[in-house]
Amino acid sequence: TLIDPLGMTTDLARLETVTVGAVTAAAVALILWPRGARAALAEAVAAVYRASAHGMLAALSSSEAERGEARRGLVAATRRADSAFAVALGEHGERIAAHAWLALSRAPAISRTLVDELVPSLPATPPVPCKAASEAIAQRIRAAARELSEVAARMTGSMVVQPHGDTGGDVNIELRRCLAGCAALGENQVDQALTIIAWNDWLVRLDRAIHTAAPALEVVAAGSAPGAWLRWSQDRATRPESVEEQQV
User: Fold this and answer.
1) What is the Cα–Cα distance from 90 to 121, expressed in whole angstroms?
2) pLDDT the model gives residue 167
3) pLDDT tens column, 58-85
4) Percentage above 90 pLDDT, the chain
5) Residues whose CB falls within 8 Å of the CB of residue 55, separated by 6 or more in sequence, listed in order
6) Distance from CA of residue 10 to its chain's centroid?
7) What is the pLDDT of residues 209-219, one digit of tens each?
8) Which residues of the chain register pLDDT less than 50?
């Protein structure tokens, strides 16, 4: 270059290219890095809960194709969420405890038990003594789907989950009437009554799992919020309390 100053043109062009590339990479990193794997985890968890809600509603459908599609969607969403959690575990910042993931995954696992028909499907035409009980269970299924959808919305920052409580009426009374009425109609009718009772039991477990997971949902949702990286970047020693202490 000293001998032939015209060679500086190539040097300047290369310097300009490297500089533009470095600035572009820095800008992309600043856009993506603050949210990181925790944002992907929140989105993945929300997808699982949405798939669970869809599966619960599909369980009320008489279409095998719709139920099959719901099963496949729930399996795929669960696999993506497992992968996102594995990545989030290795990310710098506040640690997401494994027991929080267990709490988060319990409700979708119960939904999958029902969607996969490990519990027999509800009778399409329930016995006459079980019509009221069957409708009460259908209401509970819709309520569970609504709450699963609201959890998904909370994970993406759309809204706050509000428990709905009882769906109305004493389901246990209707279930007892269903079983007593079917006992006089024969063994086949009793089997259908027992299926309806089993669904009620699993729906109670599902409702309990959704509400038990609330603290873990808050941790993941807060960790994926914009600006949360500023809190992660602080020295743990300077914080008033750690995440583990907050959970206790």
Assistant:
1) 40
2) 46
3) 888 767 888 889 989 999 998 888 888 8
4) 27
5) 67, 70, 71, 73, 74, 111, 112, 114, 115
6) 54
7) 998 888 887 77
8) 32, 161, 163-168, 229-230, 232-248
Which of 99, 84, 103, 101 minimizes the C-alpha distance to 36? 84
- Amino acid in position 111: S
Are 115 and 58 in contact by the 8 Å Cβ rule? The answer is: yes
By the 8 A CB rule, do 155 and 217 touch?
A: yes
With pLDDT > 70 as the criterion, what percentage of the chain qualifies?
71
Secondary structure (H, E, C), the chain = CCCCHHHHHHHHHHHHHHHHHHHHHHHHHHHHCCCHHHHHHHHHHHHHHHHHHHHHHHCCCCCHHHHHHHHHHHHHHHHHHHHHHHHHHCCCCCCCCHHHHHHHHHHHHHHHHHHCCCCCCCCCCCCHHHHHHHHHHHHHHHHHHHHHHHHHHHHCCCCCCCCCCCCCCCHHHHHHHHHHHHHCCCHHHHHHHHHHHHHHHHHHHHHHHHHHCHHHHHHHHHHCCCCHHHHHCCCHHHCCCCHHHHHC
**How far is it, in rounded angstroms, from Cα 150 to Cα 83?**
23
